[in-house]
């Protein structure tokens, strides 16, 4: 990539780094000293700036707030053994960002704006990248509509912002998940494959209800029949069924996860048979009962590889094999982490050293 972007940089006068306890880094709460911002106006991206992280003044009429034109991405930067910093598969997040933008009638973003925005932010805040195992710098690019008017139409102006958040794992235990058969996350013809704010907004009430029932997360099912598993709250789902890795095929209703894609590549490489297809609730529950379902796990950038301990369906709880007995997903997760942290050769060229 060519470094063509002219980025105006305003450094913070007071770094918060020294006040930050790197032993306590809950996901999404601590931000680095700076952020990258850019504007879309008059049909082009402009005003590329690194600014101190902080509030942005906006009209309360901006259309993102009223009509929801907002998309985002999530990726992670890792500290390599030689001290360098590498972002994992950012090209896939860039591609998906523009797929989301097109679906939400938003402008796409040029590769150099996305990539150089991220690189410049990491470079100025490099000291914030954790080096502990399981810790990383979570990167959150977001784009939202900024026209201050109330007519329902695609905005003509947008803001693109990249935030960086040093963090540990999103989940710290095996999950008790509920298969949701009333509410839906997505439907054919809808926006399920886009990483857009409304997909998360609509999940919050069902999620809160499930939490009241004692669950940690939901597994969404197809809106037409509620018989097939789709994905989890903020992650894709995978199963080891009859020693094969089985996962719902992605389509219009499922986010095409980068971690999902990565794990499929690694599993095949490790000689594990992979099936991407419709996955019925019936076969999962049957597998839980007869023991052919030996592992279930959620996969995502924030979630990494999180084990699913039990599955609730229709008032019954199905307890899965003890996490300590599982071998396949931990082996894949190790391989994945070794590549990300530079402890194994990056044979697929996934690491982008910034
Ligand atoms: N599905 C949803 C709804 C998500 O929010 C995420 C998280 O990004 C994923 C799946 C996993 O995607 P990825 O592995 O690209 O992070
Ligand atoms: C990610 O894994 O990057 C996500 O977007 C999950 C987030 C919604 C917590």
Automatic annotation (TrEMBL):
<keyword id="KW-0028">Amino-acid biosynthesis</keyword>
<dbReference type="InterPro" id="IPR036038">
    <property type="entry name" value="Aminotransferase-like"/>
</dbReference>
<keyword id="KW-0663">Pyridoxal phosphate</keyword>
<keyword id="KW-0100">Branched-chain amino acid biosynthesis</keyword>
<comment type="function">
    <text>Acts on leucine, isoleucine and valine.</text>
</comment>
<keyword id="KW-0032">Aminotransferase</keyword>
<dbReference type="GO" id="GO:0004084">
    <property type="term" value="F:branched-chain-amino-acid transaminase activity"/>
</dbReference>
<comment type="pathway">
    <text>Amino-acid biosynthesis; L-isoleucine biosynthesis; L-isoleucine from 2-oxobutanoate: step 4/4.</text>
</comment>
<comment type="similarity">
    <text>Belongs to the class-IV pyridoxal-phosphate-dependent aminotransferase family.</text>
</comment>
<comment type="pathway">
    <text>Amino-acid biosynthesis; L-valine biosynthesis; L-valine from pyruvate: step 4/4.</text>
</comment>
<dbReference type="InterPro" id="IPR001544">
    <property type="entry name" value="Aminotrans_IV"/>
</dbReference>
<dbReference type="InterPro" id="IPR005786">
    <property type="entry name" value="B_amino_transII"/>
</dbReference>
<keyword id="KW-0808">Transferase</keyword>
<dbReference type="Pfam" id="PF01063">
    <property type="entry name" value="Aminotran_4"/>
</dbReference>
<protein>
    <recommendedName>
        <fullName>branched-chain-amino-acid transaminase</fullName>
        <ecNumber>2.6.1.42</ecNumber>
    </recommendedName>
</protein>
<dbReference type="InterPro" id="IPR043132">
    <property type="entry name" value="BCAT-like_C"/>
</dbReference>
<dbReference type="InterPro" id="IPR033939">
    <property type="entry name" value="BCAT_family"/>
</dbReference>
<dbReference type="InterPro" id="IPR043131">
    <property type="entry name" value="BCAT-like_N"/>
</dbReference>
């Amino acid at each position: 990539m060519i470094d063509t972007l002219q980025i105006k940089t305003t450094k913070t006068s007071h770094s918060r780094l020294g006040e930050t306890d790197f032993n306590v880094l809950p996901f999404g709460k601590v931000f680095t000293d700076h952020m990258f911002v850019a504007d879309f106006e008059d049909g082009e991206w402009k005003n590329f700036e690194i600014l101190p992280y902080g509030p942005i003044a906006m009209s309360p009429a901006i259309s993102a707030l009223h009509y929801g034109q907002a998309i985002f991405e999530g990726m992670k930067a890792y500290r390599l053994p030689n001290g360098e910093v590498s972002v994992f598969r950012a090209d896939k997040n860039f591609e998906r960002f523009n797929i989301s933008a097109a679906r939400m009638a938003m402008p796409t973003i040029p590769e150099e704006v996305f990539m150089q925005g991220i690189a410049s932010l990491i470079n100025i805040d490099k000291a914030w990248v954790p080096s502990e195992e399981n810790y990383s710098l979570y990167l959150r690019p977001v784009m939202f509509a900024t026209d201050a008017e109330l007519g329902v139409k695609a905005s003509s102006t947008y803001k693109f912002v990249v935030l960086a958040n040093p963090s540990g794992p999103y989940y710290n235990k095996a999950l008790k998940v509920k298969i949701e058969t009333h509410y839906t996350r997505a439907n054919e013809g809808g926006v399920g494959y886009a990483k857009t704010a409304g997909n998360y907004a609509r999940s919050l009430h069902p999620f809160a209800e499930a939490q009241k029932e004692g669950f940690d997360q939901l597994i969404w099912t197809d809106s037409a029949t509620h018989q097939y598993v789709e994905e989890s709250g903020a992650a894709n789902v995978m199963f080891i069924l009859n020693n094969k890795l089985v996962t719902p095929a992605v389509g219009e209703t499922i986010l095409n996860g980068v971690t999902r894609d990565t794990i499929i590549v690694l599993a095949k490489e490790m000689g594990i048979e992979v099936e991407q297809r419709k996955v019925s609730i019936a076969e999962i529950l049957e597998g839980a009962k007869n023991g052919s379902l030996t592992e279930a796990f959620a996969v995502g950038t924030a979630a990494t590889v999180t084990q699913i301990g039990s599955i609730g369906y229709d008032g019954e709880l199905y307890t899965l094999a003890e996490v300590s007995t599982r071998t396949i997903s931990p082996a894949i997760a190790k391989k994945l982490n070794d590549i990300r942290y530079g402890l194994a050769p990056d044979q697929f060229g996934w690491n982008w050293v910034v």
